[in-house]
Design brief:
The protein has helices at 42-49, 72-78, 94-99, 114-126, 142-156, 172-188, 200-206, 224-227, 230-237, and strands at residues 2-13, 16-27, 31-36, 57-62, 65-66, 79-82, 160-164, 192-196, 209-215, 218-223, 241-246, 249-254. It is of the alpha/beta class and 255 residues long. The protein has a single domain (2-91, 151-164, 177-254), classed as Rossmann fold.
């Protein structure tokens, strides 16, 4: 089932065109990674697909409805977004931060329910931060804060999940353990995931499909096994990469 469809869209900022005439369909239970060089427009495209930046052309439909026709609350129930560098606007606790993921589902002028709190507690336990609910967010390390942000995203329980550099600040264990667990849960629940990634090997390992941004609006996309070639990725990064087997998988290493 197609959850989001981009119909010949153009996205960019200033003179930077992330894509032109891009056709993209995100199916339930699939995981995509956007790859490209610095400054090529990866984050811009992600925010455009999430409805936070205006399109320069084309149309984005979510569950068959134009994205720009949905209210902010309706979007928040459909689309969850993990920013690359979230800003702390005011003092807050870990528990309050994760509970913010439940806000689209809490009716106006009502408090959170026992079910909301149960979801918050479950997601904190999933990221290994059980018992941290009353801690100040500002007292955490960068990696701990990223895990809180992932917990808030999971607590939002949306059909679409957009993540900008989800492994920022995470150590090797949490990069692999959390991503594997989080993405397996998304696939099992029929959610579609789109990630901006810098680590090509993590992208290849955890994604089903890749979207490559070459610059000046040129893109290519498809299943990982088809798109993750030495030719494509060497051209993408303007640096020679070699593909090596690793068990039943493969990885890329720069020359």
């Amino acid at each position: 089932m197609t959850l989001l469809h981009a119909d010949r869209i153009e996205a960019g900022v200033g003179n930077v065109a992330a894509c032109r005439d891009l056709e993209l369909s995100l199916e339930a239970g699939t995981v995509w990674s956007i790859l490209g060089r610095n400054g090529i427009g990866k984050t811009t495209l992600l925010l455009t697909l999430a409805g936070l930046k205006p399109l320069k052309g084309g149309q984005i439909c979510l569950d068959g409805r134009s994205l720009d026709q949905l209210s902010r609350r309706a979007r928040a129930r459909k689309i969850g977004l993990l920013f690359q560098h979230p800003e702390i606007q005011f003092p807050t606790t870990v528990g309050e931060t994760v509970m913010s993921g439940r806000h689209p589902w809490i009716e106006r002028w009502r408090d959170s329910s026992e079910r909301d709190q149960l979801i918050v507690d479950q997601e904190l336990e999933r990221v290994g931060l059980q018992g941290f609910g009353n801690r100040s967010l500002s007292s955490l390390s960068g990696g701990e804060r990223r895990r809180v942000e992932l917990a808030a995203l999971a607590a939002q329980q949306t059909e679409m999940v957009f993540m900008d550099e989800p492994v920022n600040h995470l150590d090797l264990h949490f990069q692999t353990h959390l991503m594997k667990d989080f993405l397996a849960d998304c696939r099992a629940k029929g959610r579609a995931v789109m990630m901006v990634m810098h680590d090509v090997n993590l992208a290849v390992r955890f994604s089903d499909h890749l979207l490559l941004l070459f610059g000046d609006g040129e893109t290519t996309q498809g299943p990982v096994d088809l798109i993750a070639s030495e030719e494509n990725l060497s051209r993408l990064y303007q640096h020679q990469l070699h593909r090596y087997p690793a068990g039943n998988e493969f990885f890329f290493y720069p020359a």
